[in-house]
């Protein structure tokens, strides 16, 4: 089989076909570089400290967990929707203010504050505590759908992100083993979001105080405790599959 020249119409067809996946992959890689997988990729060893850093450190974990924990505790004991939501939002505001005062990166805190704020508004409008979680449910559904669709069309999102993050572009799709592994990894991430929906949607639809407390608890338990180990597994697999490929330089030891 001969290589096509840049002027070959077939080459142009391939470039056009790959244009959208390339754009998606580059966008995902930029996002990943600022988040968990990118943080791990910057280090030579995936240690516990590297994983903690990928999750935002102790402060990042607190910003992720504490607003939901405050809501869980207050709502469980008081069933007071405005009080529980108000205190949860206040915690998020305090974290954001501390970052602003300390002139530290505020992206994660602001994102968390926006999520908490929008959820709080929805719950306050309806007066139902379970609506504090509807945004998260829809977000999980959107992520899960995107991952599943990417698998079905043969462009697994984890592969697209990893390929550009590791400097391999779309070349990994031509390696059957790597392609299958990226499909499998993407499916694992789909299962994470699907599992959250399977557990949380029935609790949301129950519309009882007990179910709302259980929903708050499951959101905490199915958050970082599931995300962190899957992130680490993903990085170990990606590092093994892309070793020696692309242009990414290993960190100096």
UniProtKB/TrEMBL annotation:
Keyword Glycoprotein: no
Transmembrane segments: 60-77, 83-102, 109-129, 141-166, 187-205, 217-238
Keyword Transmembrane helix on entry: yes
A family per Pfam: DUF3159
Keywords carried by this UniProt record: Membrane, Transmembrane, Transmembrane helix
Name this protein carries in UniProt: DUF3159 domain-containing protein
Species classification: Bacteria, Bacillati, Actinomycetota, Actinomycetes, Micrococcales
